[in-house]
Amino acid sequence: DRVRHELGIIGDMGFPAYFLIVWDLIRYAKEQGIRTGPGRGSAAGSIVSYCLGITALDPIEYGLIFERFLNPGRREMPDIDMDFDERYRADVIRYATEKYGSDHVAQIITFSTIKGKQAIRDASRVLGFPYGLGDRLAKMMPPAILGRDATLDQCLIEPPADAETFVKDWYANATELRDAYRSEPDVTKVVDTAKGLEGLRRQDSIHAAAVVISPQPLTEPAPIQQMGEGAEIVTQFEMHGIEDLGLLKMDFLGLRNLSTIERCLELIRKTSGEQVDIDSVPLDDDKTFELMCKGDTIGVFQLEGTAMRTLIRSLRPDSFKHVIALVALYRPGPMSNNWHNAYANRKNGREEVDYPHPGTKAVLSDTYGLMIYQDQVMEIAREMAGYSMGDADTLRKAMGKKIPAIMRQEREKFISGAVAAGHPADFGGALFDTIEGFAGYGFNKSHSAAYGLVAYQTAYLKAHHPAEYMAALLTSVKRDKDKTAVYLSECRTMGIEVLNPCVNRSESDFSVDGGKIVFGLSAVRNV
Fold first, then answer.
1. CA distance 310 to 298
2. Is the dihedral of CA 385, 387, 393, 394 positive or negative?
3. What are the structural domains of the chain?
């Protein structure tokens, strides 16, 4: 029934060709021995994608929702992002170019913008102030939090009481900058000028993933140019402009962790002759969860940060569903609301499991009463207010944007649906208010499940084949001296000996000999 349901929507919306293009690219990669990811984004919620081999997770088993990926109520192109072993991403793009024509395929330009620190340095320089002034002010800016940088206004203007915790932290950590801004005329001039620069485009580059495939020569709908060392063909419109033109934009992502997995499997075959089918390993492996519970996840995809390892030790995962949840919880929104700690505490009985409303228990029991996935908003709307999954996805999107006029309409619709389902109107209103508070912070469960699987696979390899995994990991970061140092230190912690480079013993990459890692010659500077 699920397959027929999805095929009907895909056919009605006119997207069969799109799925077949993606299927062909994945097919080519697999036939060439190029590792592909199990999924990325909401596409993992499609059983058609699973049956075609585009994704590797059964959406029914993991409760993933198709309409989160393709909503029949919105005439938008589906978005299937593809992860490839980073070493061979260019090969897949080359295949697409050869198949559809070099004048029909191009990468897409992207523009980086000026952020607060750089705006201050630029403004100070252009206004003729000494370098030291701009440098001093830039260093007063608060540090990034989970990859997000503070804007100048977020440093200078006190946030409202309901602002995110990290926004409040930025403001609290910018006291020195505010004092200088108020007391030093030169600083005031620099910062006011920097505000005008902040957010402007600074330079262009090739987008790390986006590729456009057009039925007509690309020179007809869009300007193109050559860019980069390889003189790649690139559109001069960025990806949003390409999508607005109705052109097919696809994401070809090179994922370092996929190359690490593949290198590790090659080393295992070489050292022991064992053929490990990493895509079929049990997802309830005791040794893997033991490694996680200890927080020994340095080098494990998505799970290696210091704060993440602290959370893992607190959570003590013993099921794959906990790994999926970890990927969703380690985000600014959930962390600013302390959901990550609440999840760990509830899982281990340190905190009572509390449901925001009795009607949500069936949907939220798996996450201990916390609404950590966007999919749960959709399920509650379907179960309690009679929404179709397409309408539930529209509700989810509206709650994420928090536009007052739209929210009023959705609230009335939700209450009417709840009444029609046999619930009192005040019940519907209270439930809507409850899920509205959660909805803006939930994460895409399909993406969490797909990346959780890659995280589990890397943890499994580290637990069962530590020397081979660490050697593969070191090879993957051999151009990054800081990460190399971190992973060499981890080898020492694990009791794995790393032998010095030797022209008679070393290979180009890191290798394994007798349980010891042999330093790769290509990782030696200037070699």
1. 12
2. negative
3. 2-111+203-256 (no CATH), 115-199 (1.10.10.1600), 332-439 (no CATH), 465-527 (no CATH)
Q: What is the DSSP string of 83-135?
A: EEEGGGHHHHHHHHHHHH-TTTEEEEEEEEE--HHHHHHHHHHHTT--HHHHH
Q: Which residues contact 264 (CB under 8 A, 6 or more apart)?
A: 461, 465, 468, 469, 471, 472, 473
Strand partners, 492: none
Side chain identity, residue 146: L
- What is the distance between the alpha carbons of residues 386 and 371, in angstroms, rounded to a whole number? 19
Tokens read off for 121: 């340095």
Q: What is the pLDDT of residue 88?
A: 96
pLDDT(457) > 90: yes
Mean pLDDT value across the chain: 92
Strand partners, 443: 373
CA 396 to chain centroid, in Å, comes to: 19
pLDDT digits (tens, 9 = 90+) for 185-214: 999 999 999 999 999 998 888 988 889 999
Do 431 and 360 form a contact (C-beta atoms < 8 A)? yes
List, in sequence order, every beta strand (DSSP E) within 192-231.
201-213, 224-227
- Condensed to tens digits (0 to 9), the pLDDT of residues 74-125 reads 777 788 889 999 999 999 999 999 999 989 999 999 999 999 999 999 999 9
For 334, the token pair is: 């959930």
Distance CA 165, CA 436 (A): 18
Position 75 scores a pLDDT of 75
Task: Please name the residue that has the structure tokens 């293009």.
Answer: 21
32, 37, 40, 46: CA torsion to nearest 10: 80
Number of C-alpha atoms within 13 angstroms, CB side, residue 26? 24
